[in-house]
Design brief:
Layout lengths: L2 E9 H8 L5 E4 L7 E7 L17 H6 L5 E2 L2 E16 L15 H8 L4 E17 L7 E9 L4 E2 L3 H10 L1
Parallel strand pairs: 1-3
Antiparallel strand pairs: 1-7, 2-6, 3-5, 4-5, 5-6, 6-8
């Protein structure tokens, strides 16, 4: 049985967008040598009054509905696993070509990147066979969850052809 404990900390609204096929990339200032991980929901972004301004107008309601993950005591529900299929570098002035592949505003992405080049992580996202309520270790980007999570019977969020079309578009 294949299992994993490594997780990536990410905004819950973004995780739900990835998990529901509304988004297929992460835009970072840094690359990664971690090729697969669980998507662990965070909520620190939601503590800012204007956090909804980070999301494209078409996704503000979605982001609002998905601001907070499900919780049981100190454990957070983890539902998705992701594989980094490819990382491409893009100049911050060319990042607008990827607007169809994420739910953030152009302004949010530009503000986040500043003068940095974008490291675009193209993710293949899978739904876990069974969501789990987990705690995690400390970590800014990556952490580990409190117990092994089975990768048996995971299901891709997007079909092979849908994912291939995204790869072609990017």
């Amino acid at each position: 049985m294949e299992t994993i404990t490594k997780c990536l900390n990410e905004w819950n609204a973004t995780i739900e967008a990835l998990g529901q096929g509304k988004q297929s990339i992460l835009i970072r200032k840094y690359g990664t040598n971690v090729k697969d991980f669980l998507l662990y929901p965070t909520v620190s972004y939601a503590l800012k009054d204007d956090y909804l301004d980070s999301f494209n107008e078409d996704y503000k309601d979605f982001a609002k509905e998905n601001t907070y993950p499900n919780k049981k005591d100190s454990k957070i529900e983890v539902k998705y696993y992701a594989k980094v299929e490819k990382v491409i570098e893009k100049s911050s002035s060319r990042i607008g070509t990827l607007n169809d592949y994420h739910i953030w505003t152009r302004e949010h992405v530009k503000s986040y990147l500043g003068k940095s080049k974008a490291q675009v992580w193209i993710l293949r996202v899978y739904e876990l066979d069974e969501p789990k309520f987990l705690e995690r270790t400390r970590g800014m980007k990556y952490a580990n969850v409190s117990e092994d999570v089975s990768l048996n019977n995971i299901k891709p969020v997007l079909s092979d052809s849908e994912f291939k079309n995204i790869l072609k578009g990017i």
